[in-house]
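Regression test attached.
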Amino acid sequence: MVKRKLIDVISTFLLCITAIIMVVPIIMILLRAFGNGVSTYIDFYIWEPKYLYALSKSLVISLCASIGTVIVSTMAAYVFSKVKFKGRDVLFYLYIIVMMMPFQVTLLPQYIVSKSLGMYDTPLSLILPGIFSPFATFLLTQVMKSVPNEIIEAARIDTSSTWRILLKIIIPLIKPGIICAWVLSFTEHWNAVAEPLILMETHSKYPLAVLLDSVSAESTLGFAAVVMFAVLPLLLFLLFENEVMEGLGEYRLK
Amino acid sequence: MRKKLIIILILLFIFSVVGFISFGGQIRDALSPKVTITEISDELYGNKYYTKIPIGAVKTDGKNIFVYSVAQTDKYPEKSNIAVRCPIVILEQTDSCVYIQIGYLGNYRYVITDSDKPVSDGERVVVEERV
């Protein structure tokens, strides 16, 4: 009994220390970001707009890439999960292999392709390769496999259009999975640092994630930028918490 | 209720970013001091050439004498001017102007002679009138 209590005390103590280690940086950021009150945010929005502009670039790149990802991945997932053709499984395993590869492996080819297509140093160099995300396709394929084939066969009686089946039957059924893929894809592009550094060279075109590495401990403006950077993914997660959990749960079950 | 609040916060976030990017220039213009700038010239005074500065441009903080010149900056997305504090040494003085050594202000050819608000070094200014 005493031994068990001792273990409880030690584990609680260790958990408290871990919690403090996790929370202290966040508290430090908040204290610095709000230390000067509203004036830091007036500077952020009006007098020092470089972070605001970088934030807008992050917003555009992440929104375009994540929406594109969801559109492309939904169609690809339908093919991988519901259409039977020769070599489908091999193709799907290739997708998984690409997903398992570190993204740095494909950065150099992406750089060469974007240079030759004239997209280098433009947001398109981040958006277009970002659209073809193997993870979102893999996730949505697994989610779509849970849709019974009988529903699709029943729908085929009413319509022969695959588009209508996809839009009217499958997408409403796997909405949480799609939202989950969108939120994860948005966050992935929002947090991207290496890709913009390789595929862009003009400093003023960088998204906010890249500029945050120049934030110094003395700069309250930099900490305000950090807070603004964290706000949107946090709000998105809070808004779609259930869908993300449901989507990931579906994916885990498979 | 919670979802509605989060949606409102997300929309506020997006509108604030888009709004301040779209209208940031106008807001900055409205908040910046409006100044009148005067071109400085090199003139003969007595038997020597000096740079002539209007007396209205000369400021002092109790210790140093200086003028504010204007320089263009690329800190803002729109074309903007900032005030640059330039210390001066007065060599000659009349009721309407002071004379300083030629070239003392470097490449700056304009000084701020009037403004609707106090100007500080590095502050963004809007040039309303050029004399």
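Expected vs. actual: identical. The CA atoms of residues 10 and 16 of chain B lie 10 Å apart.
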